[in-house]
Predict the structure.
Amino acid sequence: MAERAVAQKRGRTRASSAKPAETKKNALPELADLSRDEELKAYHDMLLIRRFEEKAGQLYGMGLIGGFCHLYIGQEAVVVGMQMCVKDGVDQVVTSYRDHGHMLATGMDPKGVMAELTGRRGGYSKGKGGSMHMFSREKQFFGGHGIVGAQVPIATGLAFANKYRGSDTVSLAYYGDGAANQGQIYESFNMAELWKLPVIYVVENNKYAMGTAVSRASAQTDFSKRGVSFGIPGEQVDGMDVRAVKAAGERAVEWCRQGNGPFILEMQTYRYRGHSMSDPAKYRSKDEVQKMRTDHDPIEQVRLRLIENEWASEDELKSIDKDVRAVVAEAADFASVDPEPDVSELWTDVLK
Ligand SMILES: Cc1ncc(C[n+]2csc(CCOP(=O)(O)OP(=O)(O)O)c2C)c(N)n1
């Protein structure tokens, strides 16, 4: 099982680009060669997201989290792999409502994120924003957006500002396969390529937009080709393998930093849970979900490599899990006892 899962991962990334020749010039290998420390960090960071999301699901079930709650479980390799390619606190991240993993990957405090989910004053938006409305200037995280696709023009605008100021900062716009069909995405593509803006469009193709399968909603299901008419290069990537994500991410970051303009990365990934906590996910079979979990789980892949390479023992990996669980438990405890915002907060932070 261990060998099969690892072997299955070899050579899965495939380039599908409007300008493959140019993008491949300084190309890195299709799978990044991760060091022991990098594998351990990827394992830790993905596990933190997984355990955090599991706990958020529990708190939602207990009625401590209200409104909507969109979990990222299954997709962890995408954001962790991309974050390995950029500068923490410098390069910018903007995403949708499925955003807790992105916040943790940029280094935001799990306590502040969980307390925002439960609507407490120690939350990132003082408990007034909830799951879809968190920001961190320090970590260069620009939300958290409930309007499907809205994050894409925002990341493009950030890239415009970065270019205008002459910095080499790159902005990352994460969005789903459903969002990819929106008009505002193509307006953004046009401006980004016209002005050669340093923005990476990361399509998280998790196969469904709410209950609608990609093939039912998209005329062109190869999202890496969506920039062809604008001349924006793109690649399809195995988004369940953190090594593939890192290799492709580094190519895209290099492309942007060299002043070549935008880049599209289609991350082929999968969400294990429903669209949100209130979705029983009847549009797909349990077998389909189970197969992804068994054969492609991003965390299990790293765990198996660490063991096979004798880079970590089972006990060491258990101890990482224990530490991660402690961090998440502390965040959940804080998010349960921290007071709600004072009523007077209703009148602060309101744009008039
Ligand atoms: C403009 C807009 N239209 C519709 C919705 C309702 N809605 C929320 S999530 C969603 C599906 C988006 O799917 P996708 O972009 O694939 O992202 P995923 O949820 O799979 O991460 C829809 C239609 C919305 N929030 N905003």
In short: Strands lie at 14-15, 92-94, 171-176, 199-205, 208-209, 212-213, 234-238, 263-268. DSSP finds 13 helices and eight strands in the chain. The chain has one domain: 2-209+220-335. The longest helix spans residues 36-61.
